[in-house]
Each structure stands twice: as structure tokens, then as C-alpha cells.
Amino acid sequence: MTIAERARDFWDRISPRERRLVVIAAISTPLILAIWLGLAINDGLVAKEARNAKMRKALVVLADLEARGPAQPSDDVVATMGTEPLSLDTYLTNAAQKAGFQLRGTTPRNPVTRNGFVTNSVSCQVTDLTIDQFRRFLQEVETGSRVVAITRLEIRRDRRDKEKLDATLEVSTYSKVPPPKGSGEASPEKGG
Fold this sequence. Notes:
Number of strands: 5
Radius of gyration: 40 Å
CATH architecture of the largest domain: 2-Layer Sandwich
Number of helices: 6
Strand content: 15-25%
Oligomer: single chain
Structural class: alpha+beta
CATH superfamily of the largest domain: Ribosomal protein S6/Translation elongation factor EF1B
Helix content: 40-55%
Number of domains: 2
């Protein structure tokens, strides 16, 4: 018996009322599936459109930033840098006092001249500092002047007291090489 014969037998066996229900089910099932599929597609399209709108907004912002050009620094460290180096002994002593301890001393290094800049460095050791004191000291050294930087740092935990730190650090300051005394400064005076 084929499928067509079985369907015809089923149709002949059922009552007219059941035949109407089968016809309604045969028509409504594809309609319900089509409506459900349409709503699912619509939800997906709405979500995709929201993502696309967000991306369009981001692209507009990026295009605006690109049109403005690269960000220019508001103040140039090299332009404001002087020819006299900063006194690192005083600078570090003041930073230590703000952090709440006394700096015992510093060891100066020989100045290094390279590419038109002079680097003056000192090394120092700090002992028995709490983490908060050391953090405040480092923050004060790094943010107190834009021409001062910590160029080497070694930190050790104190063996006697685990809450304390010992550290060895090297701090450098930068300045421009002063112009030669005979050439740059004398010319304007002769003209006047």
C-alpha cells in the first residue's frame, strides 16, 4: 500500500467534522510556522540594525578623530626644559619628607652628555619603609617634575619585618646642553 492509498483510506474513514479539522490544521500549521519564522527573522534584523547603528556612530567618531589629526601635546617637555640641571639631592630630600621619612644620602653619578641633552643621575638607598611610604615617595619623585625620572629600581622585602621594604634606586634629571659662551649669546649683544 502506497502513501496516497493510505491517505485516501484515512480520509474516507474519518467523519466530515474531523475532515474540516484536518483541513484547518493543514492550512494553519504552515501559516503559524511562516509567522514564527518571520518574527524570528525580524528580531534578528532589529538586533543587527542596532549593532550597525552603533558601528556607524563609532565610524563617525573615528572619521572625526582622523580629520582632526594626531593629538598634539599641550606642553612639550623639551621646549620647557632648561639648561641648568635640577638639584636632585634637594629634590629627593623634599620627596622623602612628603612621604614621611628622612633620606639618608645620595651618591651622585658623572653627568652624561648625548644628543644635545645632559643626564645627571644620583643613586640612593631607602630602608625600612612601609609600602604606602614608598608609594608616596615614588609618586612624588615621578610627578614633582617632568624632567626627573626613576631610571633604575630594585625592591627587596625586609627580612626582619615583612611589612617593610628596602630599595635601591637611581634617579635622573635631564637638561639641555648650554650653548657655547662665545657663539650663541654674544651675537645678539654685538648687533645692539
